[in-house]
Amino acid sequence: MSTVPFLDLGAVNRPILDEITAASRRVIEAGWYIQGQECQRFESEFATFTGTRHAIGVANGLDALVLILRSWIDLGRLKIGDGVIVPSNTFIASLLAISQNGLTPVLVEPNPASFNLDVAGVEQALTPQVRAVMAVHLYGQAAPMAGLAALCRRRGLLLVEDAAQAHGAISDGRRVGAWGDAAGFSFYPGKNLGALGDGGAVTTDDDVLAAHLRALRNYGSEIKYENRILGVNSRLDELQAAILRVKLPRLDTDNALRRRVVDRYRAGIVNPAVSLPVVAGDEDSHVWHLFVVRCAERDRLAAHLSAHGIMTQVHYPIPPHRQACYADLAPGVSMPVAEAMAREVLSLPLSPVLTEGEVQRVIDTVNSFNAVG
Ligand SMILES: *Cc1c(COP(=O)(O)O)cnc(C)c1O
Known about the structure:
The structure is a single chain. By secondary structure, the chain is α/β, with parallel strands linked by helices. 38% of the residues lie in helices and 14% in strands. It contains 13 helices and 13 strands. 47% of the residues are buried. The structure holds pyridoxal-5'-phosphate. Pyridoxal-5'-phosphate binds next to helix 4 and helix 5.
């Protein structure tokens, strides 16, 4: 029995192997591997794509978020101990970026249909301690950015987007990454825009923030060997930038191919024990980083699929407030939406290169699952 992989990155990159090889060769022969033209050009192309004045390449998606918040502290816009609202069902990196800066994650339950923050939930959680909101476009679906941006403006709060899963998604006519005061992207290989190693970027319209980040990522230096701020080493290397420049022009097409797989899943999966994901906005507000279904008997469904050669994953099995590293964050607090999701969610195979036959096998196998309950 052949298997349907959850995500075959070799297959994803195979159609553009020649272009990737040529771009890598160009970098190798140029002999300049860090902070060069490829990164500069990618930054400018990614800013244009996103619709922002600036993009700043960094080493990974976590650093993008860490360095945004760090910059706001340096610039006096946040102070240690301030609260940052973050969804209770997000990937751990969203919270780590807050904690690493001595800020306080303030967990807010997502809307149980969209899996994203909603404006009413955020508004209810506001206290004088809360000075910023981190909107996460989870699984590739844009959070309700027009509403969140209006709320943050009205209340004088900073808005940061964790756009690590949603490159290219459009919310109310604007790309994600162009709504917040700043946004963090990841180019981890499995993301919709993935490098062949680690990479990340910040997008922003804020000239002051952009200049600060450019120094911060490079030892706090604007002029070589002159260090104004206590910086870090977090750079997007030339090889990854060159590969991302090959992939960026194909991103919208790749996202459309993902959407085509998803359209078939949504039309074909009819098992009453399995709930399909809900698209809260327009079709292009979701770029389907993951196709996440819910099932009360999730582990049995995963075992059934696995027995038929279909690989799945769980995003995520333990919510942040139940992680050992966050034992002190909200002791005893229950987050019923996040906890139910952790028990019930299952991510089905999804990529731009999944074949018709593979998609049909997934559909048939999900439909042949017999729930006990
Ligand atoms: C992947 C991811 C990150 C972190 O990106 P890295 O490049 O792996 O550091 C942050 N937030 C979310 C929601 C992610 O999915």
